[in-house]
């Protein structure tokens, strides 16, 4: 869908580039996560990909054609949902939708979409009366109005309670299952882990890693097995190397002779990988 090669971008007032020659591909039909600490260049990359910023160096192809050569038809193809929902708060949800719908040639079935996000009953309420979660869901509806081929989502679940976050994640998955492509940034690693086929880690304008969450966990995981067991009425633990565990006499003896409480493989979380790759804790992010 997108091929980005050696992308360099410097804001006009800056002397140093914000993006220092990044290359990546977003494959058609995948959910691609873009992760990194605050100020790494995620939003800048996203703004370039949606044609809000130009004057970059390097090459960006969308659907095989340079992004610079795409005209208004590009905007018919994409849906964008940025972190801060911006709506006309004195208008109802439906009035907002009617307004933004007119910006596009192609439209999706809005009634179905409103029902899917759980806003159908509230469609005639003023947006000023909406909760944050409702506004974020309305934002998603806005991004989907033109039945896009590709969605750009910036922190889509930020500030949502678990139920609203699940509704949104399920909608993103359905979009993908129906052939859509997604570019997503988030500081919530569990959401990224659940959603993304591949992730890129960007640090100070450079990409440090690109792979599937699963492959990254294998790469950064410890490949150990920790057994917690009971001995003398106390919980003890032993750690074994995962390689050739089936032939490990100590391990086999332990699980045959002791009361095992838990067995864990030493696989790491995306959160740990974030900290290892970026060198920055997640609470440093915005
Ligand atoms: N309009 C601008 N003019 C000059 N510098 C900018 C501008 N916008 C962003 N920057 C700088 O570019 C760098 C990358 O910013 P960007 O917003 O892309 O980071 P980010 O990874 O999206 O961060 P966050 O997670 O906080 O959203 C930062 O150092 C920032 O100060």
UniProtKB/TrEMBL annotation:
Q: Which InterPro entries match?
A: AAA+_ATPase (IPR003593), ABC_transporter-like_ATP-bd (IPR003439), ABC_transporter_ATP-binding (IPR050763), P-loop_NTPase (IPR027417)
- List the PROSITE patterns: ABC_TRANSPORTER_2 (PS50893)
| Gene Ontology molecular function | ATP binding
Pfam families associated with the record: ABC_tran (PF00005)
Q: Which of UniProt's keywords are assigned here?
A: ATP-binding, Nucleotide-binding, Transport
* Transmembrane regions: none
| Annotated ranges, domain ABC transporter | 2-229
The protein in question is named ABC transporter ATP-binding protein
**Species whose genome carries this gene:** Paracholeplasma vituli
